[in-house]
Amino acid sequence: MGIIFHEEEKQFHLYNDYISYVIGICPDGEVGHLYYGKRIHEKQIVKAYQTRGVRALCCNRKEDENYTKEMAQLEYPAFGNGDFRTPAYEILQENGSRVTNLVYAGHRIYAGKKGIPGLPASYVEKDSDATTLEIVCEDAVAGIRVTLFYTIWEQRPVVCRHARLENMGEEMLDVRRALSLCLDLPDAEYTWMQFQGAWARERYPMERDLSAGITEIESMRGHSSANVNPFVIIKRKDTNEVQGEAMGFHLVYSGNFVARAQADTYGKLRFVMGLNPQWFSWKLSSGEVFDTPEAILSYSAKGLNDLSQSIHGFLNDHMVRSPYKNKPRPILLNNWEATEMNFDEEKILNIAKKGKEAGVELFVLDDGWFGARNDDYAGLGDWFVNANKLPNGIYGLSKKINDMGLQFGIWIEPEMVNEDSELYRAHPDWVLGAPNRPRTLGRHQMVLDYSKPEVVDCIYKQLYDVISNASIHYIKWDMNRSITECYSLGGAPEEQGKVYHKYILGVYSLYERLMKAFPEILFESCASGGARFDAGMLYYAPQAWCSDDTDGHERVKIQYGTSYGYPIASIGAHVSAAPNQQTGRFVTIDDRANIACFGTFGYELDLNEISDEEFARVQQQIRFMKEYREVFQYGKLYRLQSPFTKDTAAWMVVSKDREVALLGLYRGCKTPNVGIDLVRMQGLDPEASYTVNGSGDFYGDYLMEHGIPTIDTEGDWFHGNEDFSTELFVIHKQ
Ligand code: DGJ
Is the shortest distance between the CB of 480 and ligand 1 below 6 Å? Predict the structure, then answer.
């Protein structure tokens, strides 16, 4: 594994056992792209670099009328000098020109990987985990230096990229676009997969053909959003879960983003991803630098399951930083759906006590414990206890909960403020809002201006006081509205193009400070459910509340879609009350648990209000989860049957040693009088014999090649004949 530089041919070959990524310096000094895909021999010189067209309508060399950038595959292309596709960057110079031309000026190769100041990024535990290449390019006329960073990982089909832009001249540079990656592929015969939705139906997979024109997703909401996730797959048209070529692209960022694929009329494909250039303008004075967020490129030649497994392992090992990294997550009970903001200490203790009896390990006090927070209209911004509800303070409550033998956690929404709050009354200019215009509200709240360090500082101090004076093991960090009127009051007009990005940098800095002050805390991110579920957040919060939709049936789709780009251990999944708040549907408590167990399991209801039989089931579920959660959360995931294409969905996890597997089967609406339908398992040892739910004697190859019926044939396998019934199969090697 490593990076080879072929000096004579000026080619860099990044490789490991799985992939090769080849970069070349073009005849005119530009950094060109030569190959990305399945591993090829590292000594191979790539020959097919195209710089010449036929009857080119613009030519980049006097002596060769067919030499044109239009045909070139480039690593960080500019606009304005012959390449008419989407550029990777754009810099407005003082003279009004946006024309630039970066040429190779040197490079460095070293073991390990550096962080990106102020931004989340994948990290090495030891230098031998990865090798990094930095390619430095310069534009002498404009005084720009751009460093392209590439890290290839040991034993993982993953390359990470980002770019650093630097003002080397005397004049001001205005960076209008600075994307994290450009990948020029030689053909466009691909399908694009995006993960889209809205509140309560996050990350449904959706496919589009890429062979012509532009395909794009973006967020301009100030957060990564439930509407489209900053994770995209580009795959060959015949790729499916078990075979074929697929490439994954994550942006390690939680704010506005864009991802675009552009198929040109020569049949090539350009893919770019990064910070959304709309409303973006970052002035760099002499000597200043700007770092783009990181992009993660993952690859598989063996289908989407294999791609997801690589991604899961990579994010768990090299993005998550937490005492809970690769550790089983505590089973929690959250009071939100049980009480909303209507509680007092006694009510909370009653709920927690029943949770303890059921076997939960962590109690989480959700929204409503602070300031004058009795409804959505007040309190945000005032991070001190509401003594009417909790006369013994957070300290008193946390102690009582701890004394029951439970860990204790709280909910916060530190980026927001209500008009009815002490904070807003004291600092009305601390919110984002355009001068002399009304502010758009969301859930009756405004967004604090996190581009101002004093705002972040004030929230930090308030939270520090609460946390340091209580016994807090967990924090759920929520964010319940998108950003509008993104303007920093009192800020200079020419600095306003920075606000969206500085906002997110402010969020990251608060996370970083809290993590440093309280390194033992488990953070869970949340944004009205799963509206900020991205790789950037995972750097701070190893798990994310996946959706406010906890309906046993709908959740299958949400978690199924989420699993393409994110590990099971990151998916916050709870059993809530039935009928469900969002859908009104009744699904049994076992069926609700059978989906929630493929996540960081917990409950979101008052266990005092369920029947004795249901409570006994809950106790049993928790015992079961404690026994198997390591396999659920860190086993290899195989998606077997999609809820988007069939009525019955299925997936399974298999322990690393293939000794234990857990298969979840989820039925939609029943169709009568259908033929036998088999679900074929994956990832088992074909030679070994397994029991299924404690009985039988089945070879791994039988379970994988023949499969098990998903409908009740003779009553042997699957007894849940009702709509939305589920079954969990526990498979053990004998
Ligand atoms: C939205 C979250 O998704 C819910 O789980 C809950 O925490 C509420 N916010 C509280 O306001």
Answer: yes
Q: Which of 474, 476, 548 to mutate to test the pocket of ligand 1 (most atoms within 8 A of CB)?
A: 548
Q: Which token pair is 165? A: 């832009």
Percent over 70 (pLDDT), the chain: 98
98 contacts 91 by C-beta, under 8 angstroms:
yes
Q: Is the CB of 548 under 6 A from ligand 1?
A: yes
Q: Quick one: which H or E segment has residue 4?
A: strand 2-6
The H-or-E segment that residue 697 falls in is strand 695-699
What are the distances in angstroms from CA 257 to CA 235, 293, 297?
Answer: 21, 10, 16
- The two beta strands, 282-284 and 289-291, are unpaired
Tokens found for residue 442 = 């969301």
pTM assigned to the model: 0.97
Ligand 1 atom closest to residue 340's alpha carbon, by position in its atom list: 10
Contact 398/470 with Cβ under 8 angstroms? yes
- Closest residue by Cα to atom 6, ligand 1, is 336
Backbone dihedral region for residue 2 (phi beyond 0: left; psi -120 to 50: alpha; all else: beta): left
Inform me whether the pLDDT recorded for 62 exceeds 90. Answer: no
CA distance 156 to 229: 23
- pLDDT tens-digit map of 3-34: 999 999 999 999 999 999 999 998 889 999 99
Which amino acid makes up residue 381? G
Q: How far apart are CA 667 and CA 587, in angstroms?
A: 11
Q: Is the CB of 551 under 6 A from ligand 1?
A: no
C-alpha dihedral (55, 58, 62, 65), degrees to nearest 10: -10
Measured between alpha carbons, how far is 694 from 654 in angstroms, rounded to an integer?
A: 16
Residue 562 pLDDT grade (very low, low, confident, very high; cuts 50, 70, 90)? very high
Q: Print burial letters for 6-24: b (CB count within 10 Å at least 16), e (below 16).
A: beeebbbbbbbebbbbbbb
State residue 664's pLDDT score.
97
Distances (CA, A) of 97 to 59, 69, 76, 705: 20, 19, 19, 63
Does residue 83 have its Cβ closer than 6 Å to ligand 1? no
pLDDT for 492-507, tens place per residue? Answer: 999 999 999 999 999 9
Distance CA 572, CA 592 (A): 14
* Residue pair 157/299 in contact by the 8 Å Cβ criterion: yes
Query: Quick check: helix, strand or coil at residue 317?
Result: helix
Contact partners, residue 486, CB within 8 Å, separation at least 6: 222, 279, 432, 496, 499, 500, 503
Closest CA to ligand 1's atom 11: 367
- Band of the pLDDT at 673, cuts 50, 70, 90? confident
Question: Which positions are catalytic?
Answer: 478, 548
Nearest 10 degrees: CA dihedral of 237, 238, 242, 248? Answer: -10
- pLDDT tens digits for 701-710? 999 999 998 7
Instruction: State the Cα–Cα distance between residues 729 and 371, nearest whole angstrom.
Output: 47
